[in-house]
Amino acid sequence: MIALYHCRDARSFRALWALEELGLDYTLDVLPFPPRARSEGFKDINPLGTVPALIADGHLMTESAAIPHFLATRYGPSALAVAPDEAAYPVYLNFLHMGEATLTFPQTIYLRYSRFQPGRADAAAQDYAEWFGSRLRNAEGMMGPEFACAGRFTMADISVGYAVMLALSIGLDEQVTPGMRLYFERLSQRDAFMRAKARQGPGAIAT
Fold first, then answer.
1. Is the pLDDT confidence value at 205 over 60?
2. Which pairs count as long-range contacts for 179-185, CB under 8 Å and 24+ apart, including other chains?
3. Average pLDDT score over the chain
4. Residue 52: closest CA among 96, 115, 111, 100
């Protein structure tokens, strides 16, 4: 059995979306944010105190960009992962990690200093907002015409798509180009995306 510990619309949404795309059986615990402070005993499950926390095959995984690829390859084969013998494999891995390391990271700094600790570093918050926008525009220029890579929807689109979803929900709308808005609109019409949103219940973005 697979178990996912998740906060509504947090990075762990990548794992939830991936589980729904694959049609896997899993249990879902939706926790209050931040779980390390508001969910007693959670650090016994994940010492980092963060989400996602995915338990699969008796192992803990905590990285939201790694989990979708793990699920597609461990419980596949699935076209949602690009195989090592495919020409687009290096591009796939690059976008898979870009979604978190390059695109989501500056948003978390923006969130911290614009929403959670306003007034401490307003200039830094704006700098990171602009940094995110620049990286997103550059990423768009590297993507395929419809999906991130390989000419099909893959787990890389879950990684990048979540970064766009987050931006549109935390006040970074002006940093999202019309092309990336259309990209996310296509992704958000997928049945698995809508199931994942419904499964977690209503709630505000938290990361």
1. no
2. 179/140, 180/136, 180/140, 183/140, 183/143, 183/146
3. 93
4. 100
Strand 2-6 versus strand 59-61 pairing type: unpaired
Same domain, 105 and 159: yes
Can you tell me the mean pLDDT for 177-203?
Answer: 95
Q: What is the pLDDT of residue 124?
A: 83
State the pLDDT at residue 144: 97
* Domain residue limits at 47: 2-80+192-200
CATH for 177: 1.20.1050.10
Q: ω before 90 within 30° of 0 (cis)? A: no
- pLDDT at 206 (0 to 100): 47
SS3 110: helix
The single-letter DSSP state of residue 86 is S
Helix (H, G, I), strand (E, B) or coil at 109: helix
CA angle 126, 207, 177 (to 5 degrees): 50
Measured CA angle at 159 (ends 158, 161), to 5 deg = 60
